[in-house]
Amino acid sequence: MSLLLASVGFGLVTSAVLAIAAVGFTLQFAVTDVLNLAFAAVMTAGAFAAYLVNEAGASIWVAIVAAMAAGAVLSAVLNYVVYTPFQRRGAAPITLVIISLGTALIVEFGIAALAGGINVSYLMSQGKTHDLGGLILTTVQLIIIAISLVVMVGVYAMLRYTKLGKAMRATAANRMLARSCGIRAGRVIAITWGLTGALCGLAGTVFAIDVGSFNASSTDIFLILILAAVFLGGPGNAYGAMLGALVIGLGTEVSAAYIDADYKYVVAFVILLAMLAVRPTGLLGAAT
Amino acid sequence: MYYLIILLVYAAVDAIACLGLSQQFGVAGVTNFGFIIFQAAGAYVAAVLALPKDTADGGFQTYIGGYGLHFPLPWIGAAVAGGVLALPFTFLVGRRLRGDFAAVGLLVTAVLLNLLVMNYRPLFNGDAGVALVPAPLSSGMFVSTSNNYQYGFAIAGMILVAVAYWFVRRITESPYGRTLRAMRDNDKVADSLGKNLLALRTGAMVTGGAIAGLSGAILVSFIGVWSPAAWSYAETIVLFTAVIIGGAGNHLGAILGAVLVPVGFEEVTRFISNNDPSLPPNLLPSLQWVAIGLLIVVFLWVRPQGVLPERRRVIKLPDRASTPAPARVRDEDGAGGAILSVADVTKDFGGVHAVAGVSLSVGRGSLTGLIGPNGAGKSTLLSLLAGTEKVSSGRITYLGSDITGRPAFRRARIGLVRTFQLASEFKRLTVMENLLSAVPANRGDSFLGALAGRRYWRRDEAAATARAADLLERFGLAAKANDYAGELSGGQRRLVEIMRALMTEPDLLLLDEPMAGVHPELARRIGQALRELCRQGMTILMVEHELAIMDEFCDPVIVMADGRVLAEGTMAELRGRTEVVEAYLVG
Amino acid sequence: MSADALTATGVTAGYGGDPVIRSVTLRAQAGQIVSVVGPNGSGKSTLLKAIAGVLRMSAGKVVVAGRDLTNAAAEVVARSGVGYVPQVDDVFAPLTVRENLEMGGYLVARSAVPDRMEHVIEVFPRLGSMLRRQAGKLSGGERKMLAMGRVLMLAPSVFLLDEPTANLAPAIARTLLEEQVTTLARSDAAVLIVEQRARAVLAVSDYTYVMGGGELRLSGTPAELTESPAFVESFLGGHRDQAIQRSEADDHADTGKA
Question: Which domain holds residue A183?
Fold first, then answer.
C-alpha cells in the first residue's frame, strides 16, 4: 500500500512537470501548425539558462524566470528564422517535422558543445519532507506541483477569458477567418511561440529540478512522454494534454513501482501507439 | 591502409542502408523515423546467429540464440529479420494515419525499443551489447584477419552495394515502382484507382527493412560488437540527411549521400577529433551533430530536391505508323439501348434529401449531359452511380445487372469509372506515367512482377504505352507526354485526369465538371474528343455547368433541381421550358 | 449622389494559372444591397475573395471609403470596416456561439462588446438562445446566422456575403434574404452579396451585376434586368428571343395568377 502511495506521489510530480510541457507543446502545434520535435531541446536550453543564473548566485526559483525568458526568445527565433520561412514556402507537414528534428539536433548539441556534455545540478535544498496522508513529498516537489497547477489554471483562464487567448483559439480553429475578423494572425502566432517557449523553458527547469542532475541530452526520453500525453489527449487540445499528462505521469510511475523502473516508459509507449492506431484525434479530440 | 578499408566498409554499409531508406522515403513516400531499428535488428540477428552459445566465452555476455551458423546464413537471417520486423509497423503507416503522426509514432518506437534492449539484458546483453562476433568465413573477429581477407571483405561490400542498387532500381523502374510513386504523390487518388495502399506500404516497409537488416549484418561482422549506443534514434536522422542531400527518389543520390554524410563527414571527422588532445573531449562530436542538423535545414531550404534530383522517366512515344488502331472492338448489339438505368434512387445525408427519387436511363453510345443549379444533387448522383456513396433506396442497373450493392472498385472493374471535381494528378509523375499508372492489369504492377524484370512485363507496358500515346494524340497533349503533370496548366491537368480514366478502358465514363477552369478553346477540344470516343462505342455521362458545351456536344441533357430530375431533352428544347428557366433563376 | 462605400476596378484574379475572373468592375453605396449573380463557376466567389484580401489579385484596384485596399492583408481589410462571410468555413467551429461573436467584435473596444452583442441578438433573435452552444454543432441556417452576426459585431461599413443561402431550404433562404440581409443594409452599410438564387436576391437588391465565364456580363437595377432579354441568356445561354418570349409569357402568367 505504501508502495502504491509512494509511486502515486512520484507520479503526481512527473505529471506536474509533464503537464507544463505537454500544454506548451500542444498549444504550439494548434496555433502554429508545427509539430515541433525541437521542443525538448528548447526545454534543455531553458534548464541550462536557469543553471547559469543559479551558478551566479541567484535562487533557482528566481532563475526559473531566466529559463522562461530563454525558452521564449529561442522559440521566437526558431519560428522567425526556420519555421515561418518554410511555412511561407508551403512546406508539407512532414517536411516541417523533418526540419524540426534537424533543429532539435542543432539546439541539443549546440548546448552540448557549449556545456561540454557534463552533468550539472542546481544549487538548492530539497526542503523538508511532508507526509500528506501517506503521500510523502518534499517541499520542492510540492512547489513543482503548485507551479504546475498555477500554470494550468493560468492557461485555462488565458484561453477562456483573455482577448489574446481567444485570438489564439480562433487562429488555431480557422486562421483565414481569424484574419478576416481583424486578428493579426502572424502576430498571434509569434506571441504563441513566445508564450509556449516560456512554458517550455519553465518545464525544462522543473524537469531538471525533479531529476536532480541533467545534461544536454537528458530530455530525449522526456520528449516521448510529452508526445504520449499530447496524442492521448488529442493533438492541439490543451485540456486533453493536461489529462494526458496526468494519465501518463501516473501510469509510468505506478507501473515503475510494480514492474521494473527500467521499463516504466513502455507504458507511455504502448498508450501512444495504441492511440495513434485506434484514435489519432485523441481522447478529447473531435472524431472527424 | 587499414584506414582505407574501414572507410570502404563503412561506405558500403551506409550506402546499402541509404538505398533501403531511399526506396521507402524517396520512392514510396513513407517517412520511417524508426529506420535504424531495422539495421539494428539485422545486426543483432546476424550476431546471435554467428556467435556460439552464450556460455562459450565464459558467460561474460548473455544473449538469446547463439547458433554458431556459418556465412552466409547469419546475413540472410539478418535481412529476413529486418523484413519481418517491418510487418507489425504497417498498421502505423497503413491507410488512415496522417504521415507526420505516423512518423512520430515510428520515432517513438525507435527510442523505446532502444531503451528496452538496453535494459533487458537476457535479449542482447543489455547496454553492453554483444561482442566477439566472428567475421564471415573466419573463426575470429575481423581485426584479427589477414590483409587479403580484409580487402576481400571490402570488395564484397562494394558488390553488395551494387546488388542492392540493382534490386531497388529494378523495383523502382517497374510499373510497380510507378504505382509506389503515384501513392507518394497522392495516396487518395491512387486508392480510387484501385491501388491497395496497405499492401503497397507494407511492401515498402518490408523491402526497406530487409535491406537495412542486411546493412546491419555487414556492419556487425566488421566491427564485431553491437550495442544500443550504435543505433540511437539520431542515427536515423543521419541516414535521412544523407538521402535528402543525395536526392530523395534517386538511388544514385542515396549512394552519393551515404558517401558525403555518414562516411565523408562523420567517420572522417571522428579520426581528426581523436588526434587532437587540446580540444574538450565532447566538442567535436557535438559539433558534428550540430552540423548534421544544419545540413538538414539548410539543404531543405536551398536545394530540397538534393544534389542528384529524381530523374524524369522519359518514355518514347511509339511511331505513329506502328501505333495499333484502338484495339477495343465494341459490342454494337446494344447500341441505342440503355447501358445504365436508375430507378427511384434516393440519398439522405442526415435528413437532407440530396437526391430525392431520381429515375433516368443513359443510352449506350450517348454523350449525356447532366446540368442543374448548385446543390441540385448532380455530384451526389454521380457518386451513387460510381459507388463512391451508397444509395439510401432505389435500384441501379448497369449492363442488365443490378449493381446497387456493389462497391466502387468492383464497378470500376466492369467498366464503370468516374473522375473527381478536384485536380488529382500525380505531380511528380510525367503525363505519360500518369496515364500508365491507371492500367489495371499490368504484369509488372506487383512486387514479384517487378522483380521478374522488364522482360516479364514489357509487352503489357508496350501495349499500354501505345494506348496512352493514342489518347495523348487524340487530346492534343502528345508534346507534353514527358512533362511532369505538376507543371501543366490547370486545363491540361484536367485533360490528364480524363485520359487517365480512359486508360482503364471504361464502358461508361462519369465525368464531374471536366471543363471547370479550362480555357474555352481547350474545352471544345475536349468535347470533340469525347464525342469521338462515344462514336466508337463508349458512353459518357458528364456533369458540367458550362452550358455552351452542352449545346455543342451533349444530347440528351438531363436537368436536375432539388434532388430530382426536372427535364430531359436537347439544350435548345430545355431552354424553352419554363421549369428549367425557373430552376436556374431561382437556384 | 453619395460617395461609394466600395469600388472595385478591373479586378483580375485566380488560383495560379489562368485568371478565373478578368477585369471586373463594380461599386456599392452605403445603405445599398448590391448583388452579384450568375451561374456556377462564373467567378462570383473569387471576386469576393479578392476584395476581402483572402486571394491576391493580379490586377485591379479596391477602394473602401476612400482608402486603397488593393491586395491588403485580410486583417487590414477587416480593420478598414469590411465584414466578410465566406461560403464555407464561416464560423470558428470549436468555439461557442458567444465566443464567435466576441471574435467578430475583436476590433471593438471591450466596453462596447455587450451592447453590440445585444444589437446582434436583436437582429438575429435565435442566436440569443444558443450562446453557449458550440458553433460546429449548429444547423446550416443557425450557422449562417451566426456567421452574419459575427461580422455584424464589427459594425462594418461594407458587408461581403458569399452565397449565404447555399444549402438552406428555400423558405429559410427567403427569410434570410428578406429580413436579415435587409437589416444589415439599414445600418447605413453597403451590402455586396453573391447569390446563386437570382430571383430571390433580385427582389431585395438595389442594383445587380451578372457574371458569366469570369467576366461581368450585365448590370442594372432589378427592374431593368428582368426586362432585359440578355438576363436569362446569361444563365442559360442560347437564343435569347425564344427564351425571353417564354420568360415574358411566364411573367404574364404569374401576374395573371396573382
Answer: 2-278
